[in-house]
Amino acid sequence: xxxxxxxxxxxxxxxxxxxxxxxxxxxxxxxxxxxxxxxxxxxxxxxxxxxxxxxxxxxxxxxxxxxxxxxxxxxxxxxxxxxxxxxxxxxxxxxxxxxxxxxxxxxxxxxxxxxxxxxxxxxxxxxxxxxxxxxxxxxxxxxxxxxxxxxxxxxxxxxxxxxxxxxxxxxxxxxxxxxxxxxxxxxxxxxxxxxxxxxxxxxxxxxxxxxxxxxxxxx
Length: 219
Known about the structure:
CATH superfamily of the domain at 26-100: RRM (RNA recognition motif) domain
Structural class: alpha+beta
CATH architecture of the domain at 26-100: 2-Layer Sandwich
Strand content: 15-25%
Shape: extended
Order of helices and strands: EEEHEEEHEEEEHH
Distance between the termini: 86 Å
CATH topology of the domain at 26-100: Alpha-Beta Plaits
Helix content: 10-25%
Radius of gyration: 27 Å
Largest sheet: 6 strands, antiparallel
Number of helices: 4
């Protein structure tokens, strides 16, 4: 894969690839109504982050639950960080939700997510079919049903979006991202002035003006 940095960030036991290519940084925006257009999403983002327009690459709108739509936005890391400071984006009358895309690494040895091959202590599955998990053939030759050897369920392959192992690691990465956002929000709040020990604080009562006396004097 081009422009993939070799550095790996460890996040609560989850490993995510640090990607240098600007096209590899993405956010998902969900919750637009079915009449929303790509241009409306672009305008909302330009209002949220002024000057971001030329740096955006937007996907086509796709169906989302409850008759809503979703879209993927690609840009460079600097602008992704500016977008993900916000949790929500107002588009028309809808409050849409912003989520940064997480790239969870997968082990080529055991097929589990969250670690790389050199750190793997799991079962070696490199000689097995990636579709059904059995030995003796590869996925192109496989006529069997898809079966995940990680969660032992049929209907999906190892490490796919339906895999419990992958969903668990993705959930942990999302929690870590939320913690980062909260920490960033707290850091942006001005500190309360500290009172030194022994410092005298004088609280002066407000000056009350007798309105009735003033009005009588004016008359």
